[in-house]
Structures are given as structure tokens and as C-alpha cells.
């Protein structure tokens, strides 16, 4: 038996990579009987059949399991956001961070298309705001090559999932990291200021030995699912910290008396857009909860 990683799942077949080749495998019938569904990212053992096929015998223990996109053993999420074209979307950035925090996955922020920045653009403000929260932040450009080597060391030896809007340059960045990938990239439509979601299914791309990246479209339409309003503050690092000083336990940091978060936002001790986004997500969660009952 040999060991490999599932890099793609399509119509009942699992594509297993062992470092050299990719084999098209079926899963043993017992998986179905037990209700186990192999996931992209799973480490498996398999019995080879000929040179290109095989049968998956066993799924090795999963460390992490993401639902959207469905990937196992993810080490980190790369939040890819362009500084321009399309315009930086901090609402979506904070929204994705809520999900990475909730899944307890490290988030790394990559600001792309840095070559489009002009003198006087306020990018440093965003960089320092997120660095202050403890997130690694890199400025990158697939045009000039800025930051590409830093991204390479950040992804080395890991399974990373890429998250970000269409057209921010995810595929272009991955092509820079590994030109053999030859991923399609597409002109951003100027009319809408966004791309066309050139990338569709979930697939792990091999960048180097033991290094995989999923260029996934699924991460951008993020629903909060069954999340409770009370859980949100823990997904904003600074709000969680500041919230320790609130007068009441269970303070939702809206208009409560003795809240420590609201004044901090008003006095500029936390990024104002982060507090705005928190309030917006909170009201969405409350609405959803009401509709559940
Ligand atoms: N100026 C500049 N343009 C870039 C850069 N990276 C990508 N682009 C352009 O941005 C457009 C979109 O790039 P893609 O790599 O296709 O973006 P994507 O995030 O993969 O888009 P989807 O697959 O639709 O989600 C293309 O026209 C690229 O040429 C960059 O670093 N600088
Ligand atoms: Mg793409
Ligand atoms: Zn509070």
C-alpha cells in the first residue's frame, strides 16, 4: 500500500497524488456504508492498479475539516485582497476573518496589485491595523514580483486555502509561485469592477513538495450559518480583548451601559471600520436568529 493526498474529487473519483503522479482512484465500498466521504486534502493509503489508477483503502486521521470549501487538513487561509481593481473590500475581509477565527485557522492577509498604488494612497493604514491584531500582512504584486518570495515561504510545507473576491489576482499569484500551473486569469470587467470567477471547482494545486494551495471560489459567498450573535465578538480579536472590561457579561457591544468597546471605537483605539463591520454582522446574526424561531 502507498500513501498520498487527495487533490481533487470529481464524479465519484478521487485524484490521489503521491509526490510524483496523480492517480484516479475509487474509494472502497465500506466508506459509503459507514457514511465517510473522502475529502480533498485527506491523506490516504491506496492500492495501485496499473500506473494510473488505484483504490483508496484508508483515510488517515483528519486534523481539520472545513465545510466551505470542503477541504480537510487545511493549515491556513490566505485572504487575497487587491488594493485596487477591484477596490479593497474591508467588509469582506473582516467577514472572512470571522470564519477563519471561528474555524481556529490562521489567516494570512495578502494585499495584491501593489503596483497600482500611487503616492498618497492610504494602504499603510490597513496594513498596520491588521498587523496590530496579529495577522501576517504582505504586499504583493504579480506584475513586479514584490512579495512573491515571502508568500512562497509562508505557504511552504502547508495546505493553504485561498479566499477572496473574483478578479483580485488569486490565479495570477499562484502562477507566479508555480508557472507550470498555467491557471487561467481573466481581465477584470471594468463595467462591474470585478472578474468573472474563472476558477470553479475545489482542487489542491501542488506548488512544491508537500505544499498545496486550493484556489477556491467557495469562500466568497460566506453565510454565517448557525452562528449565535454572542459568538461574534470572539471572532474580532480586539473586540474580544476590549470586551473583557465591559460592565456586563454577555455585552454585545452595541449601546449597553458600561461597554468598553464602543468608546474604544469612538476614540480611535480600534479601527472604526472593524467596529462598523462588527455591528453590521451582529444585526445580520440577530435577524437570522429571529427567523429561526
Ligand atoms: N496590475 C496588476 N494586475 C493584476 C495583478 N494580478 C492580477 N492582475 C490582473 O487582474 C485580473 C484578474 O486576475 P486573476 O488572477 O484572474 O484573478 P482571480 O482572483 O483568479 O479571479 P477569479 O478566478 O475570477 O476569482 C487579470 O486581468 C490580471 O492580469 C497584479 O499584481 N497587478
Ligand atoms: Mg482565478
Ligand atoms: Zn461591550
Automatic annotation (TrEMBL):
EngC GTPase domain ranges (all copies)? 72-220
What keywords tag this UniProt record? Cytoplasm, GTP-binding, Hydrolase, Metal-binding, Nucleotide-binding, Ribosome biogenesis, RNA-binding, rRNA-binding, Zinc
Q: Where does GTP bind?
A: 112-115, 164-172
Q: Is Plastid given among the entry's keywords?
A: no
Which InterPro entries does the entry link to? Answer: G_CP_dom, NA-bd_OB-fold, P-loop_NTPase, Ribosome_biogen_GTPase_RsgA, RsgA_GTPase_dom, RsgA_N
The UniProt entry, under SUPFAM superfamilies, shows:
Nucleic acid-binding proteins, P-loop containing nucleoside triphosphate hydrolases
* Primary location recorded for the protein, binned into one broad class: cytoplasm
Q: Name one GO molecular function term.
A: GTPase activity
| Family, similarity comment | Belongs to the TRAFAC class YlqF/YawG GTPase family. RsgA subfamily.
Name of this chain's protein: Small ribosomal subunit biogenesis GTPase RsgA
- Gene that produces this protein: rsgA
